[in-house]
Write a structure and sequence with these properties.
homodimer; alpha+beta; 10 strands; 43% helix; globular; DNA-binding
DNA sequence: CGGTGGTTTGATCAAAATCAAGTGAGGTGG
DNA sequence: CCACCTCACTTGATTTTGATCAAACCACCG
């Protein structure tokens, strides 16, 4: 079922009644499989649909004048990484897959109609974009003032928390098709330095990330190192 | 009139009909004067109202485990820096004034009621929070991968653009009650280094920021240096 | 007049970038 | 099946950027 993760995602922060859920489930969705590193939408585009992650990962990113790339967010199944495009005409960043991924496309038109018809759903989607913004705030602080080791730790801690919460990470390992250069771009580091940080985390016995396999041996220390506190993810209190 | 800047602000990105504007104007608002560096809301709070800037500046910020502070955004008259609190229960960052400021408080209840009654207005406010998020994205890229000089240049270029657009900056100077330490916190630098960067910008004849007075002598070079492109501010095309 | 908070300057240090050269695994075509 | 290629990763040496430490300086204020 294409909507399964999506509904779970929204219910993490917004309580909804049966008919709200049904209305969401009735949204027409067009499923598409994408290869690794495939563009979904790019800066300057004017999309007419939103993209919901069904399987795999995607990242939003920007290129600055010096040619370097910054990853702004990472997205997991259930996320709608470009929900902002529903009310912002033009994309201000790129969105592309990390590994192979499958996404569901939902037209702006059907989403806007649903928003007008169902304020509860509109509120949930709005809240979703607000949490998106909250994560950006945390990332500004992360790249702005944490040293590299803590910065990488925070990134991994957040990812694990979000994956676990969606039931997508059972034990302590995760399939994560991300190169060290990608990780570097997400943390505002160079690939070389990211490599050394990963080595440090490995020898410390905290996390081992190699060959697209992430193994978290000491999640408590990881969180503590990264100063990770899930408050900014705004999940409902009983989760 | 307390709503003046606020309405202008919303109309920068959202076209609204007469009665939408009137509905906004009818929102009950409680005006309050604040001293410099005064807290408005803090991380962990559960506010029941939003704060609209009428005069002066405010910043949102976070403190991380190492004790350092990161400024996440700067707010000018017309902004609603904590609009996100309308649908996010608990504050994930602090909000405080920079210099003396006057703000207008609007209850969540009245805003939520207006949102339900008037979808056009709800859409405008939603869009406002989406632009807020877009600015965060730009800031992640700014602190993540620009060297200090460009970073400060981008910060100042953005501020000038936003002020000018609101009709709050006529010539090339601006009253800006911000210390060099504040500027450093906004750019993820130390105060000492921020000082040296400001010196460089001054001797280059680009901007002169001293004693709360910002003078922009060469805005073109400032923008070019900071790689500033207003796209991410999502103003309507005719502005 | 002496505080105090903000700014300036200098000297030193540490973190991360850059430059450079490998290694190693997987994939393709001869 | 092997040779070769490419891309990701690794490691070392060096340089740059910005942080840290320390000490003045300055303006404003009580």
């Amino acid at each position: 079922m294409a909507h399964e993760h999506f509904l779970r995602r929204l219910q993490i922060h917004s309580a909804m009644a049966e008919d709200d859920l049904r209305a969401l489930q009735d949204l027409p969705i067009q499923v598409r499989s994408l290869g690794p590193n495939a563009p979904i939408v790019s800066e300057g585009n004017r999309p007419t649909q939103c993209c919901q992650m069904i399987a795999g990962y995607a990242v939003r990113s920007k290129i600055v004048e010096t040619g370097r790339r910054q990853i702004l967010s990472i997205h997991i199944p259930g996320d709608i990484p470009d929900l902002q495009s529903l009310y912002l005409e033009v994309m201000d960043c790129d969105l592309r897959t990390l590994g192979p991924a499958t996404v569901g496309l939902i037209s702006h038109e059907s989403l806007r109609r649903l928003n007008r018809a169902n304020p509860k759903v509109a509120e949930a989607l709005w809240r979703d974009t607000l949490i998106d913004a909250s994560i950006f705030r945390e990332w500004i602080a992360n790249v702005g003032l944490r040293p590299a080791l803590r910065r990488v730790a925070h990134f991994i801690a957040e990812l694990c928390h979000r994956m676990r919460r969606m039931g997508l990470m059972a034990g302590d390992t995760l399939e994560l098709p991300m190169t060290q250069a990608d990780l570097a771009d997400a943390c505002g580091l160079t690939a070389v330095h990211a490599n050394r940080i990963l080595l440090a985390l490995r020898t410390e016995g905290i996390v081992d990330f190699r060959r697209n396999q992430l193994k978290v041996s000491d999640e408590a220390r990881l969180r503590q190192l990264g100063g990770f506190d899930a408050l900014y993810l705004h999940q409902s209190p009983d989760l």
